[in-house]
Amino acid sequence: MPDQIFLMGNLVIMVAYAAITVAIVVPVARAGQLRTNRLATATAMIFFSCAVGHGLHAVMAYRTVIQVPAGHQLHMDASGWRWTSAVWDLLTAAVGLYYWTLRRNYGVLLGKGAIYVDPWGQHRLDEADARERAARDVAEAQRATLATVVEHTDDAVIGVTPEGIITAWNGGAERLFAYTAEEVLGQPATMLADDTGSDEQAGVLARIKRGERGMAYETRRLRKDGTVVDVSLTITPITDQTGTVIGASAVARDITAAKEAAERRRAIEERSNQAQRLESLGKLAGGVAHDFNNILAIIANYTEFVAEETADQPDVQADLAQVRTAVERATNLTRQLLTFTRAEATQPQDVDLNAAVTEVQMMLERTIGEHINLIAVPSPQPLTVHADPGQLQQVLLNLAINARDAMPEGGTLVVEANTAALDGDEVNMQPPLPAGTYARLLVSDTGEGMSPETAARIFEPFYTTKPQGRGTGLGLATVYGIVTEAEGSINVYSERGIGTTFRIYLPLATTTADTATSPPAPRTTPPRGDGSTVLVVEDEPALARVVTRILTNAGYHVLTAADASEALGLYEQHGCDTLLTDVIMPGISGRRLAELLHERQPGLPVLYMSGYSNGLLGTTHILDEDLAFLEKPFTAADLLHELAATRERSLSHVRL
After folding, report:
1. Cα(49)–Cα(372) distance, rounded to whole angstroms?
2. Where are the beta strands (DSSP E) in 482-576?
3. Nearest to 228 by CA among 281, 266, 192
4. How far is it, in rounded angstroms, from Cα 259 to Cα 302?
5. 392: closest CA among 445, 438, 341, 356?
6. 154 to each of 147, 171, 191, 395, how far by Cα in Å?
7. Cα separation of 342 and 617, whole Å?
8. CB 544 within 8 A of CB 538
C-alpha cells in the first residue's frame, strides 16, 4: 500500500511541475525572452528538472509494485534507476543553486508574496500600476505644458552650461535678442554682452558654481544688430540628482520701456518739486517786493518834497538826483521780482513774433559787439501771440545778454521764431503745457554752457554765476515770470563747452489783430480834488503819510486808516467820496472792504493800490480786470491822475 501511495504522489507532483514549467515557458517564449529573461528560464528549468526527477521516482515505485519474479534482474534494474535518479537530483540541485544566485542578483528575496501573488493582490498591483501610468501621463502633460509656456513667454529663457555655453533658447529670447536658436546654440553667452557684460557673466557663473542659489540684477545686453537693451536677469542653478551644478537658467526681461517710464516719472517729480520751489520763492520774493515798494514810495515822495523845498540849492538837487537814480534802480529790481511772481500788471495784446525778432535784432546789432555773430531767423509764416510787447522784448534781450556774457571770446547767437507741436507729455517744460501747436522762440549760443546743477536753478531769483557786481540774479527769473504770465513755458538745453539753447513756447493768438499801437498821449496836469473826501487805507504808516500829504496838497480831504476795521469806523463817522485802499492787508482785504462799503454806498469810486498784486492780471484774480489799480511804487502824478480817472469813470456809470 505505501508503494502505491508513493507512486501516486510522484505522478501528481510530476504533472504539477510539468504544468508550472509550461505556464512559465509559454508566455516567456511568446515575449521572446527565453534568452534574455534568465530568471524566468532558470525557474522553468527548476520545475522541469523536478518534474523529471519525480517521474523517475514514479517509475521506480511502479516497478516495485509490479513485483517482477526475476528478483536478480529486478535488483539490477532498480539499482540502475536509483543511480539515474540520484544523478538527476544532483542536476536539479545545481539548477536550484543557479536559480538562487539569480534571485539574489535580481533582488528577489524569498519573502512574503515573493513567489505567489493572490488574485486580489494582483488586482491591487494592477491598480497601482495604472495609477503610476496615470501619474506619468500627467507629469508628461505638465512638462509639455511647461515647455509650451516657456517657449511662448515674452521673457527670454536661456540655458547655459557652467562654462557659459548656450544650451537652450526659447521664442522670447529670439524676439528679445533677434538671434534664432540655430545661431546661438553651442555658442558662448558672451556674444550677447560687451566687455563689461562678459566679465559680469563670468563672475555670476563662478558664483553659481560655488553654490549660490540664485541671483537677480539689472544690466545691459546687446541685440543681434548691436543695439543695447536694458534687461532684468534672474539666474538660477540647474543641478542633477546628486546636487551637482550642471548648468544655469537665465530669465531675461526687457525693462527698457520700464526704465524710460521710471525716468519720466522721476523727471516729472523733479519738475513738480522745482515748480513748488519756484512758487515758494515767488511768494517770498513777492512779499519782499511788496514791502520794499512801500519803502521806495516813501523815499521817492519825500525826495520830491525835499526837492521842492530846496529848488534854489544846486548841491542838494544834485544829491537828490542820485537818490532818484537809486530809487529808480530799486524800482526796476522790484518790478523784476514782481514779474517773476506774476504779480506785475501787464498790458497784453496781439504781437507779431517776427516783428519782435526783427526789432530785437536791430537793437542787438548796435550793442552786442563785433565778436558776436548775430543771426535772426524769422518764421516763414506770420506768428501772432497774445502778450505784453515790452515784456516779450525784455525776454529776448535778457536771453541775448546772457548769451553774450557766455561768449567772452566770441561766438554765434541765433534768435529764431517758428512753430512746434507738443504732445503734452514733455517732462522738461517749465511749467508743463497741454498738447497743441505753439509759437516758439529760440535763443541759442555757442558759449560756455551750464552744468545740470546750474541749469536746475537758473530761474531762482538772485541766483547767478556771474562775478559779484555783474549780475543781480533776476534776469532769468524775470524771463520765467513773463513767460508763465503769458501762459507759456520755457525749456533749457545746455552742455558744457558747447552752448545753451532756450526754447520759449507761447500760445498762438486765436485771432489776428493789428499789433500797431499809437504812442501814449502826454499827460496833462492832474486835476485838483476840490475838497472831496478820500478814505486812504494803508497798513504801512510811512507810506500812508506820504499819500496823505500828496492828496492834501492836491486839494483833497483825507481820512487815513491802518486797516479795514478802522476804515469802517471812519466811514461810519465821516463818510467819503472815494476809497483808496491797499489790496493785501492783515485781516479784511481791500477787496472785501470795498464790498462792505458798496453795500452802504453802491456808487462809491474805489482805487486799489499794491506792490504785490496777485490780482489785476494774475491767476488768482483777487481783483477783476476792469477794476482801477495803481501799482507801487508810484509818483504823485501817477496817484492823482489815476484817482481822477477813477472818479470820472464812477460818475460816468452813475450818469448812465
Report:
1. 121
2. 489-495, 499-507, 533-537, 557-561
3. 192
4. 63
5. 356
6. 14, 8, 21, 51
7. 8
8. yes
> pLDDT at position 429, please?
78
User: 385: closest CA among 515, 570, 210, 522?
Assistant: 515
What was the pLDDT predicted at 461? 66
pLDDT over threshold 60, residue 549? yes
State yes or no: pLDDT of 62 exceeds 50.
yes
State the number of CA atoms in the 13 A half-sphere of 652 facing the CB.
6
Within 10 angstroms of residue 85's Cβ, the number of other Cβ atoms is 18
DSSP string, 96-150: HHHHHHHHHHTT--S-TTSS---HHHHHHHHHHHHHHHHHHHHHHHHHHHHHHHH
CA 276 to chain centre: 19
630 touches 345 (CB < 8 A): no
Q: Which three cell numbers, joined as nine digits, stand for 433? A: 503745457
Gap between the Cα atoms of 285 and 267, Å rounded: 26
Which residues have a Cβ under 8 Å from the Cβ of 318 and sit 6 or more positions away?
Answer: none
CA dihedral 7, 11, 13, 16 (to 10 degrees): -170
Helix (H, G, I), strand (E, B) or coil at 257: helix
Rounded Cα distance between 429 and 436, Å, is 14
pLDDT for residue 116: 42
Q: Tell me how far apart the alpha carbons of residues 142 and 471 are, in angstroms, rounded to a whole number.
A: 75
DSSP string, 275-330: HHHHHHHHHHHHHHHHHHHHHHHHHHHHHHHHHHHTTT-HHHHHHHHHHHHHHHHH
**C-alpha grid cell for residue 268?**
516729472
What does residue 498 show for φ and ψ, rounded to 5 degrees? -115, -50
The set of cell numbers assigned to 455 is: 541749469
Those residues with Cβ within 8 angstroms of residue 202's Cβ, 6 or more apart along the chain or in another chain: 164
Opening angle at CA 250, ends 248 and 251, nearest 5? 150
Q: Is the peptide bond before 431 cis (omega within 30 degrees of 0)?
A: yes
Alpha-carbon distances of 62 from 1, 65, 504, rounded to whole Å: 12, 5, 129
User: What whole-number distance in Å separates Cα of residue 462 and Cα of residue 475?
Assistant: 9
Rounded Cα distance between 24 and 44, Å, is: 6
Note whether 323 and 303 are within 8 A (CB). yes
Nearest to 542 by CA among 559, 557, 562: 562
Report DSSP letters for 150-205, one per residue. HHH-SSEEEEE-TT-BEEEE-HHHHHHH---HHHHTTSBGGGGS-HHHHHHHHHHH
pTM over 0.85: no
**Least confident residue range of 31-35, 176-180, 187-191, 376-380:** 31-35
Whether the pLDDT of residue 277 is over 80: the answer is: no
Q: What pLDDT was estimated at residue 649?
A: 84
Q: Which of these, 397, 274, 278, 295, lies nearest to 340 by C-alpha position?
A: 278
Question: Smallest Cα–Cα separation from 281: which of 481, 470, 484?
Answer: 481
Please give the Cα distance from 365 to 592 (Å, whole number).
51
Output phi, psi for 631, to 5 deg.
-85, 135
Whole-number Å distance between alpha carbons of 336 and 338: 5
Cis geometry, peptide bond prior to residue 452 (ω within 30 degrees of 0): no
Q: What pLDDT sits at residue 287? A: 64
Helix (H) or strand (E) holding 562: none
250 DSSP β-pair partners: 158, 235
Termini Cα distance of the chain: 159
Q: Which helix (H) or strand (E) holds 516?
A: none
Report, as an integer, the average pLDDT of 217-224: 88
C-alpha cell at 190: 558672451
